[in-house]
Amino acid sequence: MDHSSLLEDLRNIVGAAHVLTEGDLSAYTRDWRKRAEGTALAVVRPADTEQVAAVVRACSKHGASIVPQGGNTGLAVGAVPDTSGSQVVLSLRRMDKVRALDPANLTITVEAGCILQNLQETAEAAGFLFPLSLAAEGSCTIGGNLGTNAGGTQVVRYGNARELCLGIEVVTAQGEIWNGLTGLRKDNTGYDLRDLFIGSEGTLGVITAATMKLYPLPAARLTAWAAVPSMQAAVDLLGLAHKHLGAGLTGFEVMNQFSLSLVDKHLPQLRVPFWRDYPWCVLVENSDHESEEHARTQFEGLLEAALEAGCVSDAIVAESLAQASTLWHIRESIPMAQAEEGLNIKQDISVPISRIPAFVAETDAALTREIPGVRLVDFGHLGDGNLHYNVQTPEGGDAREFLLKYEDRINALVFDSVAKHEGSISAEHGIGSLKVDKLPSYKSAVALDMMRAIKTALDPQGIMNPGRVLSTQV
Predict the structure, then answer these.
(1) Which of 193, 247, 297, 429 is most exposed by smallest CB count within 10 Å?
(2) Structural domain tally of the chain?
């Protein structure tokens, strides 16, 4: 590959100022968790879809592989270059416009580089709700959210990013533009190409824009924090919440005692409720389209039934939006508290909700038995069966030495337990490069063959984010 000729072509397409080859490029080449850092031939920052298409055509001509990147907040090392120095990072951050908002159709069309929080605020200013919500919403982008099929805290009601998307615009691996930005909710005209690209982590093409669903703003949104005696009690409370709140149940998060102890230790100003006295706490959100009075009546009915059933030991209902925000901030601060505590192993698994208590009990016991000093940070989106079953290195020990010695064993124990309970080793973070070598052990050979056939058909040169999702080795 003639690097100088490719760089010249790229500068002619997007302008020399937007082809970065020198200086500190770590914001583009190092992943958010600092697990990996690569070296890019160049970071290219196109301004529009036509420039993206021209960049892809240039890379295809020169045989250069492309790493599409949004906010670079991913947790599976799927959006940074390798160490070869030959890959082009295609940053979509300049493409951040809101193209259209259609109130009657309840849709908003945005470019891939649009920050999630900006989309939320634009929708709210127009009187609507865009419900995708996650800790990185101040820096993650819609393109990245769709590329990984992000989940977040309101999946229990609204679904993952895939369920919130009606149409996408894509630049193919050949540099052609597919305009699939339909706002239709019904379209039976062949294969669902939209869903093929969503969740593909940039391995099939580049998502450049999307048409997303909007919802009416709720009249009231209430949050409750409840202490529960066990994971089974949390699952029982979830069942009662579905019964009492119906479609108003928009969030249901679970947090173990150790995860909350880390928040209390590193962010004591947040004043975590109940954590010292109970093994688990649950955060429940009720969005009501009638009134705050109606929402509180529903919540009171739920908590009375839960206390009577013995699945709640104590509870508080936020008295203001500020208090509710603080409760959610506690939950969202667990990853930050983990980082302050030191190195850790992050898991993003899903298990059928009915089997989560058995999964947690068995996996906790296996890890505690086999891994000296292990500390378990167990929290996540119980409402949709997605747990962040994380492992903190032992207190006071050499964390890097521990990881070198035990990380593979920990992953094997957790993933084997997930498989036993008919779950998935990735719920919302994607496969990236971190789990690409693990996937063949937990995905059927038939499924992997079909995935490889799709990859080969859409990206015959293999230039789109190679080595992510699917191993380059068959």
Answers:
(1) 247
(2) 4
